Amino acid sequence: MPSPLLVEVPQEIETERLLLRVPRAGDGPALHEAVSESLVELRRFIASVPWVAQEQSVESSEIYCRTALSNFVARKDMPYLLFERKSSTLVGCAGLHRPNWDMPRFEVGYWCRTASAGHGFVTEAVSALVHLAEARLSAVRLELIADAENTRSRAVADRAGFQLEGVLRSERRAADGSLRNTCVYARVRSAA
């Protein structure tokens, strides 16, 4: 495997309805607006997205965007902002996280803006990322982690062709201190 720094990963991906684009300087206000609108839903599954426990601000969103771009260039993380092509509205985020370039293996993660949920945007984005990972990055394994009670997230895993490998019981804590079960999904291809 060549150095991850030499692996060509597109900064933009177009699907039928979406533009997936790496965050960049200046995206903080749009990201903050989407996160702020979605905090109640995101915090429901805070064990899966612990960053939403922190105070949210335009500045923290801008820092995230600039850090995300840096991590993308270094191939440490590959996050994308999801923009509806018709309206240019930021509808969520998705990415290939925690890469293990020796395999290669990636974790697929995502969240959807509350007003955009239920329209299939996340499934469309995840399908594009699966294609990228398998066709261009030679991924042998893709993982998707979801709270057992997050039925929407689990449905995305099913629609994107992931198989449930197991449930990690009492694996995380929710904001109220209760224990949460975590579902581990995967797509695996033989390394032939």
Helix percent reads 25-40%
Model regions low in confidence, pLDDT < 50 over at least 5 residues = none
Question: What is the CATH architecture term of the domain at 9-140?
Answer: 3-Layer(aba) Sandwich
Query: How are strands sequenced across the largest beta sheet?
Result: 1-2-3-4-5-6-8-7
- Shape, principal axes of CA atoms: globular
Gist?
The protein is of the alpha+beta class. 30% of the residues lie in helices and 32% in strands.
Give the tags.
192 residues; alpha+beta; Aminopeptidase; eight-stranded mixed beta sheet; 4 helices; 32% strand; protein N-terminal-serine acetyltransferase activity; GNAT_dom
Structure description:
This protein is an alpha+beta fold and 192 residues long. It has 4 helices and 8 strands; from the N terminus they run ββααβββαβαββ. An 8-stranded mixed sheet has the order 1-2-3-4-5-6-8-7, sandwiched between helices. The two termini are 15 Å apart. 33% of the residues are buried.
